[in-house]
Design brief:
27% strand, alpha/beta, Rossmann fold, 225 residues, 6-stranded mixed sheet, binds adenosine-5'-triphosphate, single chain, binds magnesium ion
Length: 225
Amino acid sequence: MSAVINLKDISKTYGHGDTSVQALKKTNLSFFNQEFVGIMGKSGSGKSTLLNILGMLDHPSTGEYILDNQNISDHCDDKISYIRSVSIGFIFQSFNLFARQTILENVITPMRYAGTKSKKEMVETATGLLDKLGLADRLKHRPSELSGGQCQRVAIARSLANNPPVLLADEPTGNLDEKTGNEVIDIFHELKAKGQLIIMVTHNPEYENVVDRMIHLSDGHVVKK
Ligand SMILES: Nc1ncnc2c1ncn2[C@@H]1O[C@H](COP(=O)(O)OP(=O)(O)OP(=O)(O)O)[C@@H](O)[C@H]1O
Ligand SMILES: [Mg+2]
């Protein structure tokens, strides 16, 4: 089975000279379809750096990023933006919803960027996703009118709008109570069963039991994969 994502000798250094920080040291990792992978490590160990590189939000300082057997490291920014919009969904700890948009518009926005669906298809897809996540009666509401758990479910719906094969989540349950957090984990298990690759940064050691494998980072090194 070939990996969806292959990182080869990826490293990341922020800044220059005396004040430079090597946030990620030479890292080799492979991720496969239908995997639910966790990333743990102390604050400052490089988890978000790794996730941002996986999500093509940040360029690595060295190494190669292979997505679906394609080396994207040398692509121009426009091409990377397009590949990201159709391949990767993001979920953040603080939801990062668009405050001025209704939740329906929040879920439609990434489809508008990808530009492959008609308006009718975008509305249908967004409504269907929000319905599946139990938010059918909130379509016209704005994020400020929802609870934390509901916001995170909107963020999940939005991350799935373009049906990406890869879903990245940076502490998606960090701002949720235990019950709501577990609901999010259940949703990830359902998505995994449908073939998606899910990579989740977490601080919660109990999640060792819910993921297929847990990658441990320490001071920019992968100490367990
Ligand atoms: N933009 C930046 N400029 C300079 N240094 C940075 C930058 N982003 C992160 N770092 C440094 O890189 C290291 C890794 O940071 P990172 O955000 O990846 O840690 P983390 O494991 O996600 O931590 P946390 O659990 O607190 O979110 C830290 O030492 C941090 O100070
Ligand atoms: Mg972080």
